[in-house]
Amino acid sequence: MTMNNEIQNIINNQINAELQSFYAYLGMAAYFDEQSLEGFAHWAKKQSEEEHEHAMKFYRHLQERGGSVELKALEPVDTSFNSVVAAFKAALKQEQHITKLIHEMYDKAISRKDYPLQQLLNWFIEEQVEEEDMVQTIIDQLERVGDSGEGILMLDRELKSR
Ligand SMILES: [Fe+2]
Ligand SMILES: [Fe+2]
Fold it and tell me: How far is the CA of 131 from the centre of ligand 1 (A)?
Protein backbone atom coordinates (compact mmCIF):
# COMPACT_ATOMS: atom_id res chain seq x y z
CA MET A 1 0.00 0.00 0.00
CA THR A 2 1.50 3.32 -0.99
CA MET A 3 0.37 6.61 0.34
CA ASN A 4 -0.83 9.72 -1.42
CA ASN A 5 2.20 12.02 -1.65
CA GLU A 6 0.44 15.15 -0.52
CA ILE A 7 -0.95 13.39 2.57
CA GLN A 8 2.47 11.93 3.36
CA ASN A 9 4.00 15.41 3.15
CA ILE A 10 1.52 17.05 5.49
CA ILE A 11 1.96 14.27 8.03
CA ASN A 12 5.73 14.68 7.87
CA ASN A 13 5.32 18.43 8.34
CA GLN A 14 3.17 17.73 11.39
CA ILE A 15 5.80 15.39 12.86
CA ASN A 16 8.18 18.32 12.59
CA ALA A 17 5.67 20.76 14.15
CA GLU A 18 5.03 18.43 17.11
CA LEU A 19 8.77 17.97 17.66
CA GLN A 20 9.17 21.75 17.45
CA SER A 21 6.58 21.96 20.26
CA PHE A 22 8.52 19.33 22.19
CA TYR A 23 11.57 21.56 21.83
CA ALA A 24 9.71 24.75 22.79
CA TYR A 25 8.41 23.21 26.04
CA LEU A 26 11.89 21.93 26.81
CA GLY A 27 13.16 25.50 26.40
CA MET A 28 10.48 26.67 28.84
CA ALA A 29 11.55 23.94 31.29
CA ALA A 30 15.16 25.13 31.09
CA TYR A 31 14.06 28.68 31.94
CA PHE A 32 11.97 27.52 34.90
CA ASP A 33 14.72 25.22 36.18
CA GLU A 34 17.14 28.15 36.10
CA GLN A 35 14.67 30.14 38.20
CA SER A 36 14.34 27.18 40.62
CA LEU A 37 10.65 27.01 39.81
CA GLU A 38 10.47 23.24 40.03
CA GLY A 39 6.72 22.90 39.63
CA PHE A 40 6.63 24.95 36.45
CA ALA A 41 9.69 23.06 35.17
CA HIS A 42 7.97 19.74 35.93
CA TRP A 43 4.85 20.87 34.08
CA ALA A 44 6.86 22.00 31.03
CA LYS A 45 8.80 18.72 30.90
CA LYS A 46 5.54 16.75 31.06
CA GLN A 47 4.19 18.86 28.21
CA SER A 48 7.32 18.33 26.19
CA GLU A 49 7.00 14.55 26.65
CA GLU A 50 3.42 14.74 25.45
CA GLU A 51 4.49 16.59 22.32
CA HIS A 52 7.00 13.85 21.64
CA GLU A 53 4.16 11.33 21.93
CA HIS A 54 2.11 13.38 19.47
CA ALA A 55 4.95 13.26 16.95
CA MET A 56 5.13 9.48 17.47
CA LYS A 57 1.39 9.08 16.79
CA PHE A 58 1.91 10.61 13.34
CA TYR A 59 5.10 8.58 12.90
CA ARG A 60 3.19 5.35 13.58
CA HIS A 61 0.35 6.41 11.32
CA LEU A 62 2.80 6.82 8.42
CA GLN A 63 4.44 3.47 9.17
CA GLU A 64 1.12 1.66 9.40
CA ARG A 65 0.05 3.02 6.04
CA GLY A 66 3.22 2.32 4.12
CA GLY A 67 4.39 5.92 4.09
CA SER A 68 7.93 7.19 4.59
CA VAL A 69 8.96 9.17 7.64
CA GLU A 70 11.00 12.29 7.03
CA LEU A 71 12.75 14.00 9.92
CA LYS A 72 13.31 17.66 9.15
CA ALA A 73 15.48 20.12 11.05
CA LEU A 74 14.22 21.88 14.16
CA GLU A 75 14.46 25.64 14.76
CA PRO A 76 16.27 26.98 17.84
CA VAL A 77 13.90 27.84 20.71
CA ASP A 78 13.88 30.37 23.57
CA THR A 79 15.33 29.22 26.87
CA SER A 80 14.83 32.58 28.50
CA PHE A 81 11.74 34.78 28.90
CA ASN A 82 10.92 38.13 30.50
CA SER A 83 8.61 36.55 33.05
CA VAL A 84 6.78 33.34 33.91
CA VAL A 85 3.61 34.65 32.32
CA ALA A 86 5.52 35.61 29.15
CA ALA A 87 6.69 31.99 28.85
CA PHE A 88 3.11 30.73 29.12
CA LYS A 89 1.89 33.28 26.59
CA ALA A 90 4.51 31.97 24.16
CA ALA A 91 3.23 28.43 24.84
CA LEU A 92 -0.34 29.51 24.10
CA LYS A 93 0.76 31.00 20.78
CA GLN A 94 2.55 27.77 19.94
CA GLU A 95 -0.57 25.71 20.75
CA GLN A 96 -2.78 28.00 18.67
CA HIS A 97 -0.39 27.53 15.77
CA ILE A 98 -0.59 23.74 16.15
CA THR A 99 -4.39 23.89 16.31
CA LYS A 100 -4.45 25.79 13.03
CA LEU A 101 -2.19 23.18 11.40
CA ILE A 102 -4.37 20.32 12.67
CA HIS A 103 -7.49 21.99 11.29
CA GLU A 104 -5.82 22.54 7.92
CA MET A 105 -4.81 18.88 7.86
CA TYR A 106 -8.37 17.91 8.62
CA ASP A 107 -9.63 19.97 5.66
CA LYS A 108 -7.12 18.16 3.45
CA ALA A 109 -8.10 14.76 4.83
CA ILE A 110 -11.74 15.51 4.03
CA SER A 111 -11.11 16.80 0.52
CA ARG A 112 -8.87 13.78 -0.24
CA LYS A 113 -11.39 11.39 1.37
CA ASP A 114 -8.67 10.10 3.69
CA TYR A 115 -10.82 8.48 6.36
CA PRO A 116 -8.03 6.96 8.47
CA LEU A 117 -6.34 10.35 8.80
CA GLN A 118 -9.65 11.99 9.73
CA GLN A 119 -10.04 9.38 12.45
CA LEU A 120 -6.58 10.10 13.84
CA LEU A 121 -7.13 13.86 13.67
CA ASN A 122 -10.37 13.66 15.64
CA TRP A 123 -8.26 12.79 18.67
CA PHE A 124 -5.92 15.72 18.02
CA ILE A 125 -8.76 18.21 17.58
CA GLU A 126 -10.07 17.38 21.05
CA GLU A 127 -6.56 17.35 22.51
CA GLN A 128 -5.89 20.87 21.20
CA VAL A 129 -9.05 22.19 22.86
CA GLU A 130 -7.81 20.76 26.18
CA GLU A 131 -4.26 22.03 25.78
CA GLU A 132 -5.28 25.58 24.89
CA ASP A 133 -7.73 25.62 27.79
CA MET A 134 -5.11 24.38 30.26
CA VAL A 135 -2.48 26.94 29.20
CA GLN A 136 -5.07 29.75 29.22
CA THR A 137 -6.12 28.77 32.74
CA ILE A 138 -2.53 29.01 33.99
CA ILE A 139 -2.15 32.42 32.28
CA ASP A 140 -5.34 33.64 33.99
CA GLN A 141 -4.03 32.47 37.38
CA LEU A 142 -0.63 34.07 36.79
CA GLU A 143 -2.29 37.34 35.82
CA ARG A 144 -4.37 37.21 38.98
CA VAL A 145 -1.31 36.86 41.23
CA GLY A 146 0.65 39.45 39.20
CA ASP A 147 4.18 40.12 40.45
CA SER A 148 3.54 38.58 43.86
CA GLY A 149 6.40 36.17 44.54
CA GLU A 150 4.23 34.36 47.05
CA GLY A 151 1.49 33.80 44.47
CA ILE A 152 3.95 32.46 41.92
CA LEU A 153 5.45 30.06 44.47
CA MET A 154 1.96 28.85 45.34
CA LEU A 155 1.20 28.08 41.67
CA ASP A 156 4.63 26.47 41.35
CA ARG A 157 3.78 24.08 44.20
CA GLU A 158 0.42 23.32 42.61
CA LEU A 159 1.95 22.36 39.26
CA LYS A 160 4.49 20.08 40.89
CA SER A 161 1.80 17.45 41.42
CA ARG A 162 0.60 17.43 37.85
FE1 LIG B 1 0.91 18.38 20.20
FE1 LIG C 1 0.40 20.63 22.75
Answer: 8
- Check: CATH 1.20.1260.10 for 5-160? yes
Buried b (16+ CB within 10 A) or exposed e, 98-137: bbebbeebbebbeeeebeebbebbeebeebbeebbebbee
Is residue 17 a contact partner of residue 51, using CB atoms and an 8 Å limit? no
Ligand lying nearest the CA atom of residue 19? 1
Predicted confidence (pLDDT) per residue in 33-87, tens digit: 999 999 999 999 999 999 999 999 999 999 999 999 999 999 999 999 999 999 9
Ligand (nearest to CA of 52): 1
Instruction: Find the 50 Cα to ligand 2 centroid distance in Å.
Output: 7
The answer to whether 139 touches 92, Cβ cutoff 8 Å, is yes
For ligand 1, an ion, list residues with CB under 5 A.
18, 51, 54
